[in-house]
Amino acid sequence: MASQLSGPLRSLLTAMNLGRNTNHPLGGWQVLMILYRDGSTTGEPMTIRYLVDHYNSDYLEPGEPLIDDDVLRPIVKVLVEQANLVAESTRKVRERMNSGKFHVIQSSVYRINAAGIEYLKAMQRVIDAENTVVASTKRITEYCQLVKTFQQYDSMSTTDMQLYEDFNRMLSAYDEVTQGLRKLDVDLHDISTDLAFDRLGDASLHLQTMLHEQAIPAYTQMIKQAALLRWLSLQEGFGEAVAISRQAKGNLDVAVAIGDESALESEREKTKAFVQRRLASMIQSFDPSTSAIQTSFDSIYLLYQTLNDASQLLAREYEHVRRQKIDLRALTDDIDQLITKASRLTVPHALPLHLPMDRLSRAEMAAVESLPRDQRADKMADLTSSVRADMLEAGTMEPVTRPVTEAVRNTVTAADNPEAAVDGDLAADEQAAIQEFAALTMTSRRVVDITHDLEFTTQLARDAVVALYPATQYVDPAGFGVFGRSVEEAAVTTDQPIQLHLQGELFAVTLPHGFRVTFQKEG
């Protein structure tokens, strides 16, 4: 083989099966390796035939069957069309025939793109993550400084690649900090679990150090940058500036060297989209809404919940230990006094017969007696089973005898009936309220005009005026009405507060403004 795969990397790639071929689970990976290693060093074009020959000669796994064109072509198609890790182009190439001579044919030529190269490196980083990703926030200062620097992006030079490189450094610092915070989140869960079994030991001290010296300061700094980052994401000119800086002095791309404007314009648009996409993803991490927290990959508020839980756990454990403290000197004195009296203590050789439930307290027995009759038997059965180990042998217990009491039957007569309530004349009260309402407030059959303080004798009339005032706050007041009449229009007319007083009451209802209401036409 051209390169040996480590055990963990082989297991990961086999599980992913890039290329979707069961007989060649590493086929997609090996094709990427051939294109990456030989694409820039060999003088032959990367055709299907070249890939097949080198795959069979250098990249076959032990026990893996030989691969042919028909098998490899679907694997490469997945890499090109679905995974977008390989670029395909059609061109004329010289191909060696079986006779040894060359002839010119038109064939597909393959080249690994930037995404494919990053995929090869990323898979190795996944395997090494346990050793490379640490719960560290060392780069958080660099991230915060870059975010502040970009607030003045319009004054930054775009004649070189410094702006583009600084943006990538900010993304790198942000990713490293969020990885460290996520690792710290896992570590806090682990240390919190250990704390449950090691009260006030090394676990609690380590948890306190992690919270106050690393985690909480890091979260505070990250949250402070949210507003600046959100402002930056709204600046359309920032993405344009980063795209221009990418193509400035120092860029060795062929399109820049030959001045291919079509390719450069396409690259600028992709760069702008990339900048907006990454900023939007970062902003979502600082969105406090429930939907954003549930969908964000690295929500700062989800991680903060872990800090809050850990702080509460630490406080509970300290409180628990404080309550559990004992005075060893007083305990020793009590034990010494008990030892001096040990010779005078007497324990009966045989316990007297007793009912099983006398082991319960009076409060427990009272709770049982207060239950309904159908639930009392079930509760007694549960209590009996729970204290079974502390009871005498059931066969030696005497049956419970209860005295018989004579039930007294009470005779009920008509004199025992309660007095019937007297209903008020609701129709007459409503009619009086309508008359007062019309006399005090209505200027016509449809218009109610409230312009000054009013004195009412019926509560229904006063409440009707109060119920009409909220209609002035709605565009469509048709949902409001009194005495069976719906409102058609409502508007505030004066800024003077209006007091509505009901005779016999010591207070008055105050409306903020005077208002006019027009009822809908009757009929």
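Above is the first protein from milestone M3; the second protein from the same milestone is given next.
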Amino acid sequence: MRFPKLASRRITIALSLALLGALLLIAIPGAGLVVSSGLPDVRQLDAMLDACQVTSVFEAEPRPGETGGKTDRLLCPDAVGPTGFSEALLSAVVASEDERFLGHRGVDDLAVLRSLLPGFPGGGSTITQQVARTLFLNDERLLGYAAPGKLLRKLREWHVALAIEALRDKRQILTIYLNIAPLGNGIIGFDSAARYYFGKPARDLDAMEAATLVGMLPQPMNRQPFKEDMAEAASAANAADRVLAKMLALGLVTPAEATAAQAKVTRVLRKGTLSRPPHETLLATLRPIEYRRVRDFAAVQLAERGLTNEATRIFLTLDPELQALADQATAKPPKDAEMAGVVLGPQAQVLAISGGTYSTSSWNPAWRANRSIGSIAKPLLYSLALEHAGDMPKTWSTAPLKGYNPAEPNGACRSGLTLETYLKYSCNRPFVSIAAREPALATQRVTAFGWHAPDNPLLIATGGVHSNPMDVALGYTAFRNGGRLLRPQVIVAATGTGGRLLTFEEPDEGRRVLAPDTANAVRAALFQPTSAGGSAAAARGRKHAAAVWGKTGTSDDDRDAWFVGSTVGWTAAILAWREAPGVGQMSGGGLSAVRFGRMVDAYWPDRNWTGMRDGRLRDGGAAVYGWWAHPQRLWNWLAAKATMVLAIALLAMALGLLTGHRSKAPTPPAEDPDPDSVREV
């Protein structure tokens, strides 16, 4: 039997509604997916989101007043943690840049739909889209894209933004944005901007100061707040007032707070009381850490891959906090001495490279030098003694040796003690005895670690081995990696024009240089030198905030003074050297151990406190994240969900029409009952 036309029309309408609802749900992700060829996949993007990058993209066509040329810039998404920004700044950014930030999925569907309708403004990019563009894509304003290029870039931007939202929560995305936003004069990030414009960290910004910085976007060079140009200061004041008005409308400031902030805008900006800082302040702000040595090390690896001229962004393993600490540790060496250092992660990621003043010499001994490492090689001889315990004596002696008889560093080196105790006090003769018993194996062990072995194996324990901080630190990471020596990783990834992925570094499996049990035993023994009374006790720092293991080393006449060791999360090698015989601080490697201890003191206590209390309290309590706490914020959240709600409603209507059609479908007429049948009552 044929269905009536009404049922057929109902099916058509239902299918149309279902198609429209499905398009609303998948149109933006689908469009981005179509043009995603060459971009990083989700796994790669996850790793790249956490990485600092060196890029020259921003320098393609510098805006008026900004530094041009070939100078690159460093973008670090996690340079400042979420507790490093004031609540007023968080509120100002969301209110001004993306008021539906907490509700959308990375792309504001409502703004996209409005832009497709004539007579409706489309709105700007979301915060997540700005993160995608700044970190991974190129800005068409700088590269001069034509209209088709703009559409392609926008579709790719949508694709990356949706992926970022799937990988990071809103707090993390907002923190990334606050760290990478360009704020004029070549300054990157709100913390650097706060220090330059207002002389304070971003966590101390009040509502007026936050509104001023946010109001400078997206044209910071035309809204400089300094009295030297009152026209620009007036423009900055007007922009700050608009930001404050948006904050008030969203309930992120009270009327009294808004009034006080507006009065300060008039007092500071319109009346011109804010002076431009000295040029030296700007230079210090533009390069808060010396990252160029890590960049140079990465450039060598890029050259090996033939990508030097193609890469526009190099994503690095650099840790900005540890780089700053390494710079401090190797600064101010003793008279006539120099210092250099390397910090590696657990899997040999290059977290920091430090040395002298870069402008004086770009040659870095941290990975190019070939200096005597002194007693640093003794753990390798200790590993031989463990592996050949059956061929070694039960007790050891510090009595004078035949042929080569080095002096002992102190009176604690007496006969009859364990090798672990001799390692603690850096005694010489027991380890020379090991090399004398297994000279070929001792030389092979040193060579396997990538260090330069002496012609006479007896000199391995006392300064005959030569290397540099990079290779020495790599050797000690083998003790924490089950005996595997890894290749240093400095590049996470590199991309070219349009965000095209050129290379992505996979984890290095390394090569085995020690059995796992032997490596673990050596690491356990290396806690002895850093224990109380040990030769490297100073490496624990004064606060004893974290466990430390490692070893000092010195060469003849104290020309070279080393410490290499590990704490939770990283391994560092610090070298101080001079060409003339050393005296004082450099004796016994004490200087380098002390500098390592300062790094531990600076790195761990504050981090332990933040992890226990401060991070959760401040980050979790920011009012900007309470989208339900104010009618306008609640409305914005619902509006951001409008497309999804509409799509689901259309799909529900389609399902209802189809269900209704089935329930009202005509049924065939009943057959006549059997006249012979009898019905009982």
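Note on the second protein: Residues 507 and 582 are 41 Å apart (CA to CA).
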